[in-house]
Amino acid sequence: MRAVSGLEGELTVHKWLKWVCAAVLGGLLLLWPEATFDGHRSFAESRAAKDNLHLLAQTVCGEARGEPYEGKVAVAAVILNRTLDNRFPDSVAGVVYQTHAFESVSNGEIYKNTTEECFKAARAALAGWDPSNGAIYFFAPAKTSNSFIWSRQQVRTIGKHIFAK
Amino acid sequence: MRSQRGQAWPYLLLGVALVGAMGFGAYQTRLKNQYLRDAENKYMAAFHKLKWTSENIEERTAKLMATNDPDLQESLLADLRVYSAQAVEHMSTLPFTTMNTPRIANFLNTMRAQSDEKHHKLSTGQPLNEEDWAQLIELRKQAVFFEEELSNLLGLVGNNMIRWQPTVQATSPAQSGPAATPITESVLALEQNIPVPPGEEDALSPAKAQLPRPQTDIGPRVDAAAAAEAIKRFIDMPLKGEPVQTGVYDPEDKLHGLSLYYFDATKENGLPMNFGVSVHGGHVIYMVDGRAVTDKKMKPDELIQRAIQMLGKWGFPQVAHVSVAENDGTLVMEFAPVVDGVAIHTDMIRVSLAMDNGELVGYDARSYWVNHHDRQLPAPQISAADAAARTSPRLTVTAEPRLALVADRRGQERLVWEVPGRVEDQQFRVFVDAADGTEVDVVRLVGDPAPPQ
Q1: Are A134 and B209 inside 8 Å of each other by CB?
Q2: Nearest CA in chain A to B100
Q3: A135 to chain B: nearest residue by CA?
Q4: Can you give the pLDDT at residue B158?
Q5: What is the enclosing helix (H) or strand (E) of B51?
Q6: Nearest to B450 among A28, A72, A127 (CB)
Q7: Eight-class DSSP state of B159
Q8: Range of the structural domain that residue B310 is part of
Q9: How far is A68 from chain B (nearest CA, A)?
Q10: What is the pTM of this model?
């Protein structure tokens, strides 16, 4: 009986070891593509150099994916308004990649799927539409308590974003 | 034997997995450290470039004080314009975006604006006056302090005593409260102590926004119900329900600023539209409709005529068609109201029609309602033929020039002859000053990314 129970114990340990091995291998397989993915930088640079529209649309999607169309146009307009303001860089790329300026750049959200509506909104802003009323800032009030951004003069709210000057 | 092999393979597999995981971990750590070094290098490069531009700004302002030659002054001011713009670019790379530094921003902004303005004065033959020099002397004081403080900061970061990463984390928008690092403390000290020109002591508080304010009375104040009625008259199509007010921007009632009601409306087919209606006068200022247009059944000429008819109905009986561009299945057209035979480009109205059925999908008359006023237009001093003759010999004039009122790059309205032309396969509009024949601006019709006006 003891021998049998010892054999059963060994078999149980082996089963357990097999599961551990499988879990470790599975975990490694799951981690591998994410951990070794280093496409963000070169992807962003090539796109930004190629076309302002594309970068603008990417940023619109990153910042306002769930927002109404008007909110998307307003976000694109804010970026363009900044390029015309001496306090900000002169180019779309300079504005978009300003350190800490856009959360979606910091967390990589702008590199996710860019929808047709984002392109449409970016084109509308490039063609001159500005529902933000000349704003140069926008923020999601639920997400930030930064005193600087709250000190700006608020000009309108669209969806979950407050637009400010 | 089979049983022993069966018992051994999980240990082997686990061993291999452990060795693999350790190797993978080491690789990841090396990669992470490389990224951190790259990020640190990016900030250091931007800081050194900022320091270098500040040295150039300081040097150019010093030379400006010492020279009496207008040509050299002009050259130095051109340099200052470039270096101050570069300084803004380098500042934007550093993690100072969320720090409240209006004095530094004002200094660089003013340096750029003033050097540009004074450069323009000198290039048009006007000498700098006492007031100009007083402004330059104040800017020089700020430039000296700015450069000195950056030198002090360089002493910290340049000797590898401080790294940028803690400052990046401290200034992150996700940071709930102020978190000080030696770098942020140095920048805030620079912000607090930079010499402020007399009269600009309040610069520490957020700058008051420049509100677009109509130059003339655009009508009496109306309520939201009247604004909703204005939308229904404007859109001239059946709506699903009433327009719904979503907000109001009304900060300057006494000054008759361009205060707006914001409305959403829904077409009968369920698609949404957004409107801005002026609180004063109840004029529809803009309309946005993001519906997808896939077919292009209608021709541009047909849509231009349709837009002109719509503008007539909205109270703009005389307009000149200025530009047209296909944009995602819509035709975006710009029209300038015509007064006494002059196309007023500063009062431009933009109309966008769907190319599948000619439906209105965009309208923007903000420029008109902000800039419009009664103007005393001067008579042209040169003829259309003279204006065309003054354009580049490489430009082939393609149509008869027409009179227009445009804003030059300094925002001044100028009566010009608008000369349409072509260089190779590129279409241009050249604006020639109707008083002195100088070229005020050149606009390329195809290929330019259209900036917001």
Answers
A1: yes
A2: A148
A3: B209
A4: 76
A5: helix B2-66
A6: A127
A7: T
A8: 289-372
A9: 9
A10: 0.79
Q: Is the ipTM of this complex over 0.85?
A: no
* Residues B264 and B304 both lie in one domain: no
Span A4-17, average pLDDT: 62
Regarding predicted confidence, which is higher, B311 or B327? Answer: B311
Diameter over CA atoms, chain A: 87
Cα angle A14, A20, A23; round to 5: 145
Interface A-B: count of C-beta contacts within 8 A: 175
Residue A90 near chain B (CB below 8 Å)? yes
- B178 and B141 together in one domain: yes
Domain A40-164 belongs to what topology? Arc Repressor Mutant, subunit A (1.10.10)
Q: From start to end of B370-438, where are the E strands?
A: 396-397, 402-407, 413-423, 426-433
Joined tokens for residue B310? 């719509």
The confidence score (pLDDT) of residue B435 equals 94
Residue B210 has pLDDT above 60, yes or no: no
The verdict on B265 and B193 lying in the same domain is no
Does A133 touch chain B if contact means CB atoms closer than 8 Å? Answer: yes
Q: Same domain for B177 and B31?
A: yes
Query: What 3-state DSSP class applies to A16?
Result: helix
- pLDDT computed for residue A17 by the predictor: 74
Classify strands B402-407 and B342-344 as parallel, antiparallel or unpaired: parallel
> Would you list the domain boundaries of chain A?
1-37, 40-164
Sort out which chain B residues have CB atoms less than 8 A from A145's CB and list them.
176-177
* pLDDT single digits (tens) B270-306: 889 999 999 999 999 999 998 888 888 999 999 999 9
B28 with B176, same domain: the answer is yes
Smallest Cβ–Cβ distance between A21 and the set B10, B209, B274 belongs to: B10
pLDDT at A59 over 90: yes
Residue B308 has pLDDT above 70, yes or no: yes
Question: What is the SS3 assignment for A31-66?
Answer: HHHHHHCCCHHHHHHHHHHHCHHHHHHHHHHHHHCC
Q: Is residue B1 part of a domain?
A: no
- Determine the residue of chain B that is closest to A14 in CA distance: B7
Chain A residues whose beta carbon lies within 8 Å of the beta carbon of residue B11: 17
Same domain as B195, residue B76: yes
* Contact yes or no for A89 and B95 at CB 8 A: no
Q: Of B18, B177, B362, which is closest to A129 when you measure between CB atoms?
A: B362
* Residue B2 in this model has a pLDDT that exceeds 60: no
Pick from B93, B262, B288: CB nearest A69: B288
Do β-strands B402-407 and B349-354 pair in parallel, antiparallel, or remain unpaired?
A: unpaired
User: Based on the structure, what is the number of domains in chain B?
Assistant: 4
Residue B444 pLDDT exceeds 90: no
Q: Do B328 and A120 count as a contact with CB atoms less than 8 A apart?
A: yes
| Closest in B31, B98, B453 to A128, CB measured | B453
Residue B284 exposed, middle or buried by CB count within 10 Å (0-12, 13-18, 19+) = buried
